[in-house]
Amino acid sequence: MVPEHGFSDVPVWVQDAVRWAANTNNPLPLATGITPTLFEPNDPITRGQVARMDYRLAITPAAWVDPDLAPLPLPFRPSLV
User: Fold this and answer.
1) 3-class SS at 6?
2) Type and span of the H or E element at 19
């Protein structure tokens, strides 16, 4: 049986954390996995993956003590850089 987060390779002891991070009801889940069914929890994480998770956490109102203070997400537009 595949857990509700959809990843078949996540150990039981971190199921709740992965379910929270991969929340598919969130338009920008913190963690998306390597494929739709593989999270690969034993692989090293890259600097880019950490940066993406930090950014997504910063714009997640539920992660803030006062959700109204969470910054609004801004689309990345390379043409403005």
Assistant:
1) coil
2) helix 15-21
6, burial (CB in 10 Å: exposed 0-12, middle 13-18, buried 19+): middle
3-state secondary structure of 60: coil
- Count the Cβ atoms, other than its own, within 10 Å of residue 46: 9
Residue the block writes with tokens 């991070």: 21
3 state DSSP class of 68: helix
Of residues 28 and 12, which shows the higher confidence score?
Answer: 12
69: its two tokens: 């203070």
Kindly tell me if the per-residue pLDDT of 81 is higher than 60. no
The model carries a pTM of 0.65
Alpha-carbon span 60 to 37, nearest angstrom? 24
Going by C-alpha positions, the residue among 16, 81, 68, 76 that lies closest to residue 5 is: 16
Q: What is the overall mean pLDDT for the chain?
A: 80
